[in-house]
Design a protein that fits this description.
The structure holds two protein chains of two kinds. Chain A is mainly alpha-helical. Chain A has one helix and one strand; from the N terminus they run βα. Chain A has a domain at about 30-80. In chain B, helix 3 packs antiparallel against helix 4 (about 115-135). The chains are: A mainly alpha, B mainly alpha.
Chain lengths: ~80, ~240
């Protein structure tokens, strides 16, 4: 990845248009940059959703475990009451 | 199904429809920009700028909840602070990945060490610190308070990002707003505002789901502690 320090750049005021950075080159295809950007964006969002789903699933498993423990405790309580 | 679940599902449907129409509008209705702005690569703009705005929005949620938590700590405030930071990282990542790809065409380089980019990176790194801290440092009161303080700090940096362009210049252009170069075609403005609306809906959706998850996790944690203290979990 190419990086350039601010010292190479000419504008000191806020530009209202795009000013190419000194030493840069725009040889990369605009179409491929656009496709990569969109793929990366959707990959990130779906990854985030998948993480949320996984966390939700682990939470559900723990709730089930807790419910089973409570059921066992309840049935023990009923047994000792009888 | 509960009324709240119905509303949440309706929000998912509306967001999906909005995004589908937005993609259609961006690619089939909006004209490509001038070559200096990256030509067809400029279409990244309609997600890049709204993602930045959605990061601000999530950051604001993180700030309010973190500040509230520091005043009066409770699980709900901690959950919203955590959700705000997580969603801010997601949108920040979208912005930091899409921006350099567009910059390669418009500026000729992927990255420039200039004020707006550096302050944005700093903010995202602060939110990442909050997320990592909350994920791996345990559920103690001190860890939660430290994360809340970081959440406040991350959001204090957001206005600096916004005004860095006006104060310190740099190569990042001001396209919209006062002194900006403007969008050349009315459809470009429509696409941008639709992008803002779509990202707002997505941010609300993600914030709600992450906050609900964090609240449920905190409640479950307390219930597990209670159950363990009664000796209920030892047999499992």
């Amino acid at each position: 990845m190419t990086t350039h320090s601010i010292s190479l750049q000419t504008p000191t005021k806020t530009p209202s248009e795009f000013v190419p950075v000194e030493g840069g080159s725009d040889s990369t295809s605009a179409e491929s940059l656009l496709v990569i950007a969109y793929i990366a964006m959707w990959f990130l969002f779906f990854g985030f959703l998948a993480m949320t789903y996984r966390r939700q699933k682990s939470l559900t498993d723990k709730v089930n475990q807790l419910e089973q423990a409570l059921k066992r405790a309840d049935s023990r309580g009923e047994g000792s009451a009888n | 199904m509960e009324r709240r679940d119905l509303l949440f599902n309706a929000l998912i449907a509306v967001t999906a429809i909005f995004f589908a129409y937005l993609i259609y509008f961006i690619f089939l209705q909006t004209p490509p920009a001038q070559i200096e702005a990256g030509g067809i690569a400029q279409k990244i703009f309609y997600f890049h700028v709204p993602a930045a705005y959605a990061m601000y929005l999530s950051g604001a949620v993180c700030f309010v909840a973190s500040a509230a938590y520091l005043v009066t700590p409770n699980d709900k405030r901690d959950a919203w602070a955590r959700a705000g930071a997580e969603v801010a990282v997601a949108f920040g990542a979208v912005m930091l990945i899409s921006g350099p790809l567009w910059a390669k065409k418009a500026w000729g380089v992927y990255w420039a060490w200039e004020p707006r980019l550096v302050t944005t990176l700093l903010s995202v790194l602060i939110y990442i610190a909050v997320v990592v801290l909350r994920a791996f440092a345990g559920e103690g009161e001190a860890e939660r308070k430290f994360a809340a303080a970081l959440g406040v700090l991350g959001t204090v940096n957001l206005p600096i990002i916004h005004y860095s362009v006006q104060k310190w210049g740099g190569v990042h252009p001001a396209v919209i707003g006062k002194g900006g170069g403007g969008l050349k075609h009315p459809d470009m403005r429509t696409a941008l505002f639709m992008g803002f609306a779509a990202m707002t809906l997505l941010a609300i959706l993600l914030l709600l789901s992450r906050a609900q998850l964090a609240i449920a996790k905190a409640r479950l944690g307390r219930a597990e502690e209670h159950a363990a203290s009664l000796g209920l979990l030892d047999e499992a």
